[in-house]
Amino acid sequence: MANKLHAQYDPPWKNIINQFFPSFMEYCFPYACAEIDWNKGYEPLDKEMTQIMRDTKTHNRVVDKLMKVYRKSGEEAWVLVHCEIQGQRDAEFPKRMFVYRYRLIDFYDKPVASFAVLTDANVNWRPNAYEESLWGSSTRMEFVTFKLLDFKDRLFQLQHSTNPFSTVIEAHLAALATNKGSIENRFEQKVSITRRLYDKGWKKADIINLYLFIDWILALPKELELKYHEEIKHIEEEKKVEYISTAERIGREEGYKQGVQQVRLQERKFLTSLLQKVMGNIPQNTLQKIEASSNEELKTWITDLLSEETITSR
Questions:
Q1: How many other β-carbons are positioned within 10 Å of the β-carbon of residue 211?
Q2: What's the chain's Rg over C-alpha atoms?
Q3: Do the domain assignments include residue 312?
Q4: Which whole-number Å values give the CA distances from 13 to 8, 22, 94, 110, 211, in the listed order?
């Protein structure tokens, strides 16, 4: 269950860093932020990131962002950001940081700053370097980390910050704290964080983006989601604003459902293709089982096949 929850954090984190990159840098890495000339803007380098990740075997469940910025001295610089969102420590993470940094420098010959955002629940896991050595020769690469869990006892600071990214951190901490707790507690925290969002006086676009992050990362059962949306409706009536209309909420939910259905269709096609290679003609009862399978069952079948395990007994 924990891995599923953390996997669901990928899309909102990717989007929120894109939307609030200057605020993200200001809150998490202020010393680096102060050296960037924000007047010259910044540019996501998704194609470059895809290029270096294409054949690497060290990639795991992380949110990787590469941004081009300019230093106040005028030089171009690249900022490499890893958001580690696994539910437990990962011994391969420092190596990923090293491999990505080395590949970027090797491929593009650009200065790179490497930052890691640790959103896991393990207070003792704090990687900040990669090192290997053999027979007197060695390599060491250090990177800067920001641990969300360090703000667990600094909620007052988060709640009263004027930086929008403080809401991101508060919402993620609430998700970690309520993963195994009362669902009613999660509901109450979600409403409380959203209410404060409306009290901040930020621009409409910022509030909407933060609302979507909160709504996703603090997911609730259907009945409580409906209750949550009613609470937001009351808040907006109090504030005499309407940032997230009922139609937008319904549309977003329908869009999510369609996305899930599309993934399931793709997985069915992929599994069927694999089976044809293994079995040739696929028995009708097996096709019926595939059609009736859930997303998780389809993923298990695919994993078994790719691991050269048979599924004929399923």
A1: 20
A2: 22
A3: no
A4: 10, 15, 20, 25, 13
Q: Which of 133, 134, 122 is nearest to 89 (CA)?
A: 122
Distances (CA, A) of 57 to 23, 60, 62, 189: 32, 8, 13, 39
> Which residue is listed with tokens 């360090």?
150
End-to-end distance of the chain based on CA atoms, in angstroms? 23
Q: In terms of domains, do 262 and 214 share one?
A: no
State the pTM of this model.
Answer: 0.72
Nearest-angstrom CA–CA distance, 71 and 303: 45
Mean per-residue pLDDT pooled into runs of 10, the chain (314 residues) = 48 83 94 92 81 58 77 84 65 87 86 87 90 95 92 92 94 86 87 89 86 87 85 84 59 53 66 72 78 65 53 41
CB 125 within 8 A of CB 142: no
Q: Is residue 94 part of a domain?
A: yes
